[in-house]
Amino acid sequence: MNKKEALKIYHEHIEKIKAYDLVLATADFDSSTIAPKKGNAYRNKMMSIVQGEAFPIQTDPVLVEAIDYLNGIKLDEKMSREISLAKKNLEEILRFTKEEVMEYALVQMNANDAWLEAKQKKDYSIFEPHLLKLIELTKQRTLKKKPDANVYDTLLDDYEEGMNMKKYDAFFKLIRKELVPLIKKVSKKQDFIDDSFICKYYPVEKQERFSKDLKKYLGFDPSWGYMGVSEHPFTNAFSRNDVRITTSYEEHNVISSIYSIIHETGHAFYEHQLDPAYDRLIELSGMSSGMHESQSRFLENYLGKRESFFTKLYPKLQKLFPENLKDVSLEDFSKAANVSKCSLIRTDADELTYPIHILIRYEIEKMIFNDEIDLHDLPKIWNQKYKDYLGLDVPDDASGILQDIHWSLAYFGYFPTYALGSAIGAQIFHQMSKDMDVDESLSKGDFKALTDYLKDHIQKYGNLYDYDRILQIATGEPFDPHYYTDYLKEKYQKLYEL
Ligand code: ZN
Question: Which of 25, 284, 394, 410 could be stapled to 383 by a disulfide with Cβ–Cβ 3.0 to 4.6 Å?
Fold first, then answer.
């Protein structure tokens, strides 16, 4: 085998794997948005078969030989990273059989359906057996992948290369130390900012009209992006020029869908603004979760929570809902969008209490995968943590342990990347504010200037480097979580006049 032959084999196989990925992503988007429930069992079975069909291509001995060959010779920087990641993944996949892959896919999809039903019926018992099975399978699979490593460390590294419990423990210790006292002070001034108008009645059909203006302002263009509605908002990229996002609307919370759209659009831009050279690759176009969340939470919080973000948009919102907003100024609306309140639902949480929601999930996952708890106590433990950290009583499991989709998809180890991503975003925002006038771009409606900045400084790299290296290049410094805690302290002390 020579280099030319090996590369040809590699690219041909990747193209086929990507074809299967496209089919599966399409079916997945369809099933999360419009597919009737009664077809779930049949569809899940068919999807697991499709997944099984991709397995012989992923593990084809010819491909294995080509990757081994390429891994041993000199390649350019991009190809060298692509191949080394492909080799790592291949070694993991080769530990499983086609039947195991198909079974796992089926268990996951069925668990996801059970979760949705359990959440809608507020009945954890529907989901519990599925969750326990997923936890057991995840433990087994993770140990099979890396027999000598701690299971939770492996899971954390899967979602953010280089992360482990030691690093996250230090990170969350800082969060606790810096933010918990501030949250306590803010919660003593609960009526300081009036946000009562946010929860008035906002008919969905009119919210949908505003979504159109919002997408236009953000530059989420229908030529490459599509938005649907689902229970839990998500982004699914079929390719760089076909990125799907979803939102969900609440009649009594006008900012819920606004911020979920901004968040998912942040993910969408990351996929859309990748280097076109990555179209033929699979590893460099698959970014880590922490970096991905840094981009979504960047748009949602560091840009979307600024008053200037609404300069152009707010008059349109007022016009749609005069009965609720005609006497509310832009400044007061913006303040209300930033109110910090201990609340039950992670996706609706404000910037300040948000990392505490993640801390809770991190602590629970750590206990699960280090075998420190009886798994039947999970809802009890969840509720106790919300009481301890946020002082809240969880009225039902739908607002508690069932609120997030992640565990039903076996995304264990994913949650911490939300807090990490938020902290990465703070460091990028600090640099961006030095390099350009963010508020001027926002109030002029020139959102493109901001997404272009993210493209040039972060997004174009895709998965070429890990998060620390990208931060070094973009900000001249390695990751420093103090940018995050300092940002939150300064912002909320000012907002609440503390
Ligand atoms: Zn996200």
Answer: 394
Q: Degrees (nearest 5) of the Cα angle 466, 422, 395?
A: 130
As given in the structure block, the two tokens for residue 234 are 């998500």
Q: Under 8 Å CB-to-CB from 498, ≥6 apart: which residues?
A: 182, 185, 186, 189, 492
Q: Name residue, tokens 């690219």.
A: 11
Sheet of strand 235-239: strand arrangement: 225-229, 242-247, 235-239
What distance in angstroms lies between residue 417's CA and the mean position of ligand 1's atoms? 9
Inter-residue long-range contacts of 116-119, CB under 8 Å, 24+ positions, other chains counted: 116/231, 116/408, 118/397, 118/402, 119/231, 119/398, 119/402, 119/403
Distance 296 CA to ligand 1 centre (A): 6
Q: Which of 101, 10, 90 is nearest to 47 (CA)?
A: 101
DSSP 8-state symbol, 394: -
pLDDT at 231 over 90: no
Q: Distance from the CA of 465 to the center of ligand 1, in angstroms? A: 20
Q: pLDDT tens for residues 30-68?
A: 998 999 999 999 999 999 999 999 999 999 999 999 999
Distance CA 117, CA 124 (A): 9
Distance 234 CA to ligand 1 centre (A): 7
Task: Note if 15 is an active site residue.
Answer: no
Q: How confident is the model at residue 232 (pLDDT cuts 50, 70, 90)?
A: confident
Check if CATH label 1.10.1370.30 holds for domain 165-495.
Answer: yes
Question: Mean pLDDT score of the chain, rounded to an integer?
Answer: 96
Question: What is the pLDDT at residue 186?
Answer: 96
CA distance 142 to 122: 31
CA distance 426 to 448: 20
What global pTM score does this model have?
0.95
Are the C-beta atoms of 64 and 91 separated by less than 8 Å? no
Given 161, 264, 283, 351, which residue is catalytic? 264
Domains in the chain: boundaries: 3-148, 165-495
Q: Give the residue-averaged pLDDT of 334-344.
A: 96
